[in-house]
TrEMBL record:
The keyword Membrane applies. Keywords: Membrane, Transmembrane, Transmembrane helix. This is Flp family type IVb pilin. It holds the Pfam family Flp_Fap. The chain crosses the membrane at residues 21-41.
Length: 52
């Protein structure tokens, strides 16, 4: 009975899931920022290349 009580009070799995979700959200934000920034840089470089 003590094992079952400890099992239901243990929140370490929930904490790991929360950290995983936070890491996934940060990854999505980084990917979005790099994609947007990369497009802008590519366009600027193309403008420079066309001018040359």
């Amino acid at each position: 009975m003590k094992f079952v009580s400890r099992f239901f009070k243990d929140e370490s799995g929930a904490t790991a899931i929360e950290y995983g979700l936070i890491a996934a959200l940060i990854a999505v934000v980084i990917i979005g920022a790099v994609t947007a920034l990369g497009t802008g840089v590519r366009d600027n470089m193309q403008t420079v290349a066309d001018a040359i």
